Amino acid sequence: MYWKVIIALLLAFLAWVYKAVRPPPPRPHGVSGPRIKLRDGRFLSYKEYGVPKESAKYKIILVHGFGSCKHEDAFSQSELVEKLGVHMVSFDRPGYGESDPDPKRTLKSVALDIAELGDELGFGPKFYVVGCSMGGQLVWGCLKYIPHRLAGAALLAPVINCWWPSFPPKLSAAAFRQQFPEDQWASRVARYAPWLVYWWNTQKWFPPNSVIAGRANFSAPDLEILSKRDLSSIDMEYPTQQGVYESLHRDMIVGFGRWDFDPMEIEDPFHGEKGSVHLWQGDQDGLVPVALQRYIAKKLPWINYHEMPNTGHMFLALESAQDAVLHALFAS
Length: 332
Fold this sequence. Notes:
The protein has a single domain (20-330), classed as Alpha/Beta hydrolase fold, catalytic domain (Rossmann fold), CATH 3.40.50.1820. It has an eight-stranded mixed β-sheet, with helices on both faces. 37% of the residues lie in helices and 14% in strands. It is built from twelve helices and eight strands. The protein is α/β, with parallel strands linked by helices. The protein has helices at 2-21, 80-84, 107-120, 134-145, 169-177, 181-192, 197-200, 210-213, 220-227, 245-256, 290-299, 319-330, and strands spanning 35-37, 43-50, 58-63, 86-91, 127-132, 150-156, 277-282, 303-308.
């Protein structure tokens, strides 16, 4: 008799565990803007900014960050967009906003999405790519998988995977310990048990990733910028309208999981020819360790490293920073 009760309880527990760890299916999303159809039938939603494409001298594809979307115009304050003749397109990354999710999303698949977007919009054989934060991390995938399509690239405070093999163990371990304990655990789960990411960041027993929970480790310069922003005008639900798993959680799995390459082994995509790669970092960034960015810059001498003094993770909100990025990107 007792063994039947035990088995029943065990089955009930296993059913509860399965339901708790299994992410829900993506919620239906609306369509309010232009989209392209990709190679596998998915649709990618995008938005264009800057001067008209037909008269543009430079064409940029913007890659948004964690929890953001195509509506974030990274260079909205810079007058150089008009002066230099820059046409930009930002897109909802797979699973964000109005772009279909990609259950097989990798750094390579996103890079191929970007190449297809450039083709569909008639950007020509080469274009510029600029990524912010987690979007900056994805630019590494472009440098690896579609370097022949790039006229130039900028990585703005790109998120770092502390498990990249080229990092000295002591350096990466020290940088990892600088993160909040909950972020250390969330990153470990994303790397070693990705099937638990949804449960870990939605359960109530342990603190989830701090950015998802809305208590990110922003530095004083970042808090000053945030205090001046009108958040009421920002649709905070649009990026995750399909659910947090296909957007935020899959970002963590891709970003902190096992990569097919080590960014510090990438070769110069331009080999001394026209074109350049720039990496920008605030020296008071509380989310991305500056020590690791400095190490990357030393390992890859072909990268133009720019460290912004007295700035944090959100330095691109400053008009002076936007101007500096555009000047550097098009200087060649």
